[in-house]
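Sorry, I am new here, but would you mind making up a protein's amino acid sequence and the tokens describing how it folds?
***
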Amino acid sequence: MTQSAPRILIVDDNPEIREILQILLGGEGFQITEAADGCHALKELESCYFDLIILDVMMPEMNGYETCLNIRAKSNAPILFLSARTTDSDKLLGFSSGGDDYLEKPFSYPELIGRAKALIRRYHVYQGKEETKPSSILEFGSLTIDMAGELVCLSGRQIELTTTEYEMLKLLAQNPHQIFSAQRLYEAIWNEPYYYGANNTVMVHIRNLRLKIEKDPKNPLYIKTAWGKGYHFESAM
């Protein structure tokens, strides 16, 4: 194991699940840290940097959604929910609380590994740890997107985005006025086939983006809705 190996925090109150994930992900070369509950996970985040957090939903005292909200106050690392709760409303809660992906139990090992690697890669690209980025800056009125530094600023103030939020904003901003359907956005950002309910996932991330970059999220200047068609980015001034 090298020091450069990505670090994954596994948060689950079931020791058997943690052991399975430890063996599976550890065998792929990841450095694994375990936490039996949300409070323990938050303590780990105070002293360690993680490239991915795998989070169970049903935990005592502080459930996964509450834990996710608290994690987002400390870290923008991607969060993968792992849960047997599979309704659209459960997934919507996961994305609303700041999660990046949601994998249903029982899951296949290849799917878990694939999603973990994809989330980590996107996070590294977002943090500027991989790939050479073009030295370009997109400016739209008070909104600035630094493509080289992967920074987003509003009126000179840096805005903290998750990797998923950043990728969505970048895609829309690089293609101003072009309408993206929910299906097109989902398949481009999550890199997987569109499914029933994914529209809510996209809607939540659009809402979260507006809360962060729009002065009045209910009357957005940048991310507009084309009713019945999708979303488009306007170069507002």
